[in-house]
């Protein structure tokens, strides 16, 4: 156990997310404030003991209830009582029990439709004009090739 001395207003850090601060001291009673994320359960010790005791009693009553129910089902003769899984033994069918397959017609494969134009749902059967060709896009300039840098000569005056 780590024992520390703190005065009013001083704190103790526990990990990165929990801070315990001494708020007030009156005689032999110390008030502390605890700052912690919601995921950290913080209880007074006497409350924590009561919670554990209640949880243990609830678990025991569930076990006792399950045992009573199991006994009642056994007494009624309702068949097998659910319990731990047992490995199943597979029965191999004998020759007389084995199902016999009778030959039947073999279905013929249906043809796969070829991809093509999808008919329009329009009730107008008139042919549509062919789409006009779109203008060809302008060529994208290519970046210069890597290599040694080129020097641009100084501009000359016209007529020289």
UniProtKB/TrEMBL annotation:
Pfam families: CsrA. GO terms for biological process: bacterial-type flagellum organization; mRNA catabolic process; negative regulation of translational initiation; regulation of bacterial-type flagellum assembly; regulation of carbohydrate metabolic process. Keywords: Bacterial flagellum biogenesis, Cytoplasm, Repressor, RNA-binding, Translation regulation. Residues 102-160 have a biased composition (Pro residues). Gene3D superfamilies: Translational regulator CsrA. It comes from the Bacteria. GO terms for molecular function: mRNA 5'-UTR binding. Its main location: cytoplasm. Homodimer; the beta-strands of each monomer intercalate to form a hydrophobic core, while the alpha-helices form wings that extend away from the core. A translational regulator that binds mRNA to regulate translation initiation and/or mRNA stability. Usually binds in the 5'-UTR at or near the Shine-Dalgarno sequence preventing ribosome-binding, thus repressing translation. Its main target seems to be the major flagellin gene, while its function is anatagonized by FliW. NCBIfam families: csrA, PRK01712.1. Belongs to the CsrA/RsmA family. This is Translational regulator CsrA. It comes from Actinokineospora globicatena.
């Amino acid at each position: 156990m780590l024992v520390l001395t703190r005065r009013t207003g001083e704190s103790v850090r526990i990990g990165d997310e929990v801070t315990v601060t001494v708020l007030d001291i009156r005689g032999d009673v110390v008030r502390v404030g605890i700052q912690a994320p919601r995921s950290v359960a913080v209880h007074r010790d006497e409350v924590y003991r009561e919670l554990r005791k209640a949880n243990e009693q609830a678990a025991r009553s569930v076990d006792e209830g399950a045992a009573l129910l199991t006994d009642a089902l056994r007494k009624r003769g309702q068949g097998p009582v659910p319990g731990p899984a047992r490995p199943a033994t597979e029965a191999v069918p004998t020759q007389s029990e084995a199902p016999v397959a009778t030959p039947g017609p073999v279905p013929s494969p249906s043809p796969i439709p070829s991809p093509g134009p999808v008919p329009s749902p329009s009730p107008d059967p008139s042919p549509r004009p062919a789409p006009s060709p779109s203008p060809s896009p302008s060529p994208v300039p290519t970046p210069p090739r890597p290599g040694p840098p080129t020097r641009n000569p100084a501009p000359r005056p016209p007529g020289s």
